[in-house]
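Appendix B. One record, verbatim.
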Amino acid sequence: MTEIIDGKEFAREIREEVRREVELLKEQTGSVPGLAVVMVGENPASEVYVRMKEKACQNAGIASFQHRLSIETGEEELLDLIGNLNQDPGVSGILIQLPLPDRIDEGKILCAVSPAKDVDGFHPANVGRLMLGEETFLPCTPLGILELLHRSGHPPRGKHVVVVGRSNIVGKPIAMMLVQKKEEANATVTICHTGTPDLAALTRQADILIVSAGRPGTITAGMVKEGVVVIDVGVNEVGRNPEGKRILVGDVDFPGVREKAGAITPVPGGVGPMTIAMLLKNTLRAYKLQIGLTPSVSTKNFPEEKF
């Protein structure tokens, strides 16, 4: 029977672990981690995500600082705000809610965030450290995928992992994380995408298939082998139900692939909840580094029996 990997439950476990550690650190230091979220404009989807992050911080005991800026905000004004947040000792992590207005240089803004407070793992300095296998802040969604694999008992070590997708947010970083010569990784990794000729020939080789193509139905049952572990990162709105609620599907044909997979993540309820959980974990790690504590590396916190 196919295992459904419950990201909501694993995310709940991680949030509780963070909450307990924040509580202990507050008793010891009298302070708590702080996360500043910066949003420009009134994008409805971004607003939903910002509210979710704010609530998650509150539940974990992390201070939350919301900076909702007008759509008219200029690039220099935004850079000034980031500079102030970089210097604020009460702010452990800074998150720039994307997308930004087209007239603002996204790369310039992300580079302005201090690497020590880059809890999204997007700063080029942190991306470079990831490439080199050095300790750094890892992007939240790929880190959540790695946690899901370990906590569900499917460690990637020695496995052939096929990644469908090459984005800077998911595809490239998860491939780089998995290929590292580390106990929690050490996989053989193939990266492909929707422009790959005969994509199915590669996906059928996967022991673990990670799909982040941004297109529903990218992976069908005929494209996977029996017993594969499937991590579906996609979130696609395909309509509304009679009550007006959004109908969301992943990049994988869930009903068909489920019949062959050994384990699979649902959409929603799979990778999505893990992203915010890892944001909290990264914020806690940043705080500990900034007050002079040596945090355990997040991927070292996996239960030993899962290796």
